[in-house]
Amino acid sequence: MKKFELPIGFAMALAMNEAAMAKFERMNESEKEAVIKRTHNVNSKDEMRMLVDSLLK
Questions:
Q1: Could you tell me the pLDDT band of residue 2, with boundaries at 50, 70 and 90?
Q2: Whole-structure pTM over 0.85, yes or no?
Q3: How many C-beta atoms surround the C-beta of residue 34 within 10 A?
Q4: pLDDT exceeding 70 applies to what percent of the chain?
Q5: Which pLDDT does position 42 carry in this prediction?
Q6: Dihedral (C-alpha) 5, 40, 14, 21: value to the nearest 10 degrees?
Q7: Is the pLDDT confidence value at 23 over 90?
Q8: Domain boundary assignment for the chain
């Protein structure tokens, strides 16, 4: 399995949302990579929190 480097802000936001963290852990490699790519367009803590929350939708 390919290991991903999680951006620190994303990792912190995931740590605050256990359900989103569990969902992220269940994703396949390409799904995880797509989410991580989305983090590069985030400009604030609120945006990162919204991105993490969106994993549950």
A1: low
A2: yes
A3: 10
A4: 93
A5: 98
A6: -70
A7: yes
A8: 8-54
User: What is the per-residue DSSP string for the chain?
Assistant: ----PPPHHHHHHHHT-HHHHHHHHHS-HHHHHHHHHHHTT--SHHHHHHHHHHTT-
- Calpha distance 49→9 (Å, rounded): 9
Amino acid of residue 51: L
Residue 1 confidence (pLDDT)? 45
Tokens at 25, concatenated? 């852990």
Q: Which pairs from 12-16 meet CB under 8 Å and 24+ separation?
A: 13/45, 13/48, 13/49, 13/51, 13/52, 14/52, 16/49, 16/52
